[in-house]
Amino acid sequence: MGEGYFHRVASETPTRLWINNPILEDADRAIVAGAISCTTNPTYCANLLKTKLESSYVLNLIDRVVQQTRENKTASELVMQHLVKRVMERFLPLYERKPGLEGLVSIQGDPHGDENTDFIVDEALRFRKLEKNFITKIPVNEAGLRAIEVLIAENMPIIATEVFAVEQAIQVCELYCRVCEKTGYHPPFYVTHITGIFDEYLVNYVKRTGVNISPEALFQAGCAVARKQYRILRERRYPVLMLGGGARGTHHFTEMVGGEAHITINWSTAKELITANPAVIPRMDTPESPQVIEELLANLPDFRKAYLEGGLALEEFKDFGPLQYFRGMFVKGWDTLVENVRERRRTLLMIPSSSA
User: Fold this and answer.
1) DSSP assignments along 269-337, one per residue
2) CA-based angle 259:265:267, to the nearest 5?
3) Which residue segments constitute the domains of the chain, with CATH numbers given?
4) What whole-number distance in Å separates Cα of residue 85 and Cα of residue 83?
5) Quick check: 188 and 157 in contact, CB under 8 A?
């Protein structure tokens, strides 16, 4: 039996696989399949609660934690830390073989603090104590950029996340270069593009507004922005790596193959690719047709904002439609965890459901 798909990708191209939000068994499978690192986000615990293999474990963990702390928000963070630390331990051998290059595992905590620089910094500093292969994820908005500046000076590995627009990527890369030159630190630094979520947002916009656009052009929108971002990062020689994310189909991996980039996908998407075992075809440098780009620019205002340099002002980052759509998923997931903590506390300690 020959090598699996992701091993062939790694041997033939510089593209690498990260796995997103895995249960423990899937983390193990992903490592065997070729995953080198892992991302989690604020929906992680809520997602585990939906699974047959992990839900009982998570509920038992919540029961233990609520008896150790009075605050539901604190308990929720402790649950998150415990669950992600298990994944960190799985990836730690990869990190020890290639420190700072592989085996990284991210945590992105309470999204309600996304516009509070001090909250973001304090949370990242707490998470760093969990394990040496921790990498923080910080949204690219005004508060997040200030936090990134502080944490680069702490020499902390960082994923600059919730990047949907080329201008977000440029701003955070310029910040990284300035702070590295000032401090002398050059921590591992990844700049996302949340390609699939961007596509999902645009599809919803087209359905809602009835705008006339061809399905072929719409299908290419997210990858078009991702490829432009990648080209800019390479042309300007920013000392960062692009990290694709938010996949909603196998093409959000396969269309990025060939780039000196890492792509994070869910295990369900990884399994599809392992089963299909397609040919390894470098596509990252494949340009979209000018006609497709013109159609997208003419019909989708948020594509224009994402695709054009200067399409968004710094103060507009946090309110950009695709980012708010993505953040809404995080808020819902985090609030689900907090509500489970609250209800388990009420059941265990027989306190009214209206209590904090």
Assistant:
1) HHHHHHHH-------TTPPPPHHHHHHHHHH-HHHHHHHSTTSS-GGGGGG-HHHHHHHHHHHHHHHHH
2) 135
3) 5-349 (3.20.20.70)
4) 6
5) yes
* For the chain, counts of helices (H) and of strands (E): 15, 8
Do the bridges between strand 105-107 and strand 16-20 make them parallel or antiparallel, or are there none, so unpaired? unpaired
Closest CA to 72 of 338, 354, 331, 353: 338
Which is nearest to 43 in space by CA: 116, 90, 110? 110
Structure tokens at 340: 């489970």
Supply the DSSP symbol for 131: -
Token pair belonging to 16? 């690498």
Reported as a single tens digit per residue, the pLDDT across 160-217 is 999 999 999 999 999 999 999 999 999 999 999 999 999 999 999 999 999 999 999 9
User: Which one-letter amino acid corresponds to residue 237?
Assistant: R
Largest alpha-carbon pair distance within the chain? 64
340/46 Cα distance (integer angstroms): 9
**Residue type at 220 in one-letter notation:** Q
Residue-by-residue DSSP string for 158-221: EEEE---SHHHHHHHHHHHHHHHHHH-----EEEEEEHHHHHHHHHHHHHHH-----HHHHHHH
pTM over 0.85: yes
Residues 1-59 have pLDDT tens digits of: 458 999 999 999 999 999 999 999 999 999 999 999 999 999 999 999 999 999 999 99
